[in-house]
Design goal:
The protein is an all-alpha fold and about 180 residues long. Helices cover about 85% and strands about 0% of the residues. The protein is rod-shaped and about 190 Å long. It starts with 11 loop residues before the first helix and ends in a 12-residue tail after the last helix. The relative contact order is 0.04.
Length: about 180
Amino acid sequence: MLASNALIKVTLGLMIWTIVAFLITLWVLKRYAFGPIQKTIDERRERIQRSIQEAEDARAEARRLLEEHRSLIGQARGQAEQILTEARKVAEAQRARVREETEADRQRRLEETRRQIEAETGRALEQIRNEVAELTLVAATKVTGKVLDDPDHRRLINDAIKERDFSVLEPEAAR
């Protein structure tokens, strides 16, 4: 019962031909299949290692760029703060200059207004003096009944003006 099945039966010739076919197949596979398969596996291994190395290099570069970026941001913040400080100083200087210019302009206008007031006061006083002199001449002519010549007019006007106190009409600052 041991060898009743043909598949289980040991046949020496079949065994030798099976081993020969196996060895030929092994040699063909080794020569034409295993080499290219091994080469493909080695290439893939190298690509994976290169990819890993490139990823590590990219990570290192990203870290370096991140540190550089942080450094640049810090510098930019410092520069921005410095620019703001300078802008504040410039703005304060301009405010002070505008204040000074405004004050100088106000003082100039006040002085100009004072001069105009003094000039107008002087003109008004002169006009009042002339009117007083004319009124004095008219009154003297009516009182005396005679017409006075020019030197008499001048003398009477000067006497009348000297007797009057016009200081009340002059501005307080001129006293």
